[in-house]
Amino acid sequence: MTDPTRRATRVHARGHWPAEQAAGTVTLAFDDRFRRRMAMTDDAGGAFLLDLPRAVALDDGDGLELGDGSFLRVVAAPEELMEVRVPGPVEAFARVAWHLGNRHLPVQIVGDTIRLRRDHVIEDMLRGLGAEVRDVTAPFMPEGGAYGGHSHGGGHGHSH
């Protein structure tokens, strides 16, 4: 039986919960940050149940509220990614972005680069379009899209 105080039933967006009072952290890769109900373990090894009314895309810095009123801070885990830079005119960058979007690939915009998961077929396509591609290890926080999720560029779209 799960301790009812170790049940996370609410998500609070980054900046909208008392982060300085976090009771701990839970580090999750991108694929593990979109869940509704799942047994999890925090970074200190403590078990808890994520038990939300609906699946929510968790963002780095969000707070999971536990049954006792304490919070766990969500940390985006570093992942193996490709970072794409497109030299030349903005049209070249737009062309690369269009090809990635046409394949419905999750991407993260970081300054003048695009980050996405490593894939040798996509890497070959990008290089063929004139892009520079390098491997990086970093948290992956892709754009939420126009029809759901949330943008990681500033705003936060899930409701609380």
TrEMBL record:
Q: Which family does it belong to?
A: Belongs to the UreE family.
What does this protein's UniProt record list under function?
A: Involved in urease metallocenter assembly. Binds nickel. Probably functions as a nickel donor during metallocenter assembly.
Q: Chief subcellular site? A: cytoplasm
Database matches in SUPFAM superfamilies: Urease metallochaperone UreE, C-terminal domain, Urease metallochaperone UreE, N-terminal domain
Record key words, sorted:
Chaperone, Cytoplasm, Nickel
Q: Which InterPro entries match?
A: UreE, UreE_C_dom, UreE_N, UreE_N_sf
Give the protein name, as stated in the record: Urease accessory protein UreE
All copies of the UreE urease accessory N-terminal domain together span: 7-72
What HAMAP family is this protein classified in?
Answer: UreE
Q: Which organism is it from?
A: Azospirillum lipoferum (strain 4B)
Tell me the CDD domains matching this sequence. Answer: UreE
Q: Known Pfam families for this protein? A: UreE_C, UreE_N
Annotated gene: ureE
Can you name a GO cellular component term?
cytoplasm
Query: Could you provide one GO biological process annotation from this protein's UniProt record?
Result: protein folding
Q: Where in the cell is it found?
A: Cytoplasm
Q: Which GO terms describe its molecular function?
A: nickel cation binding; unfolded protein binding
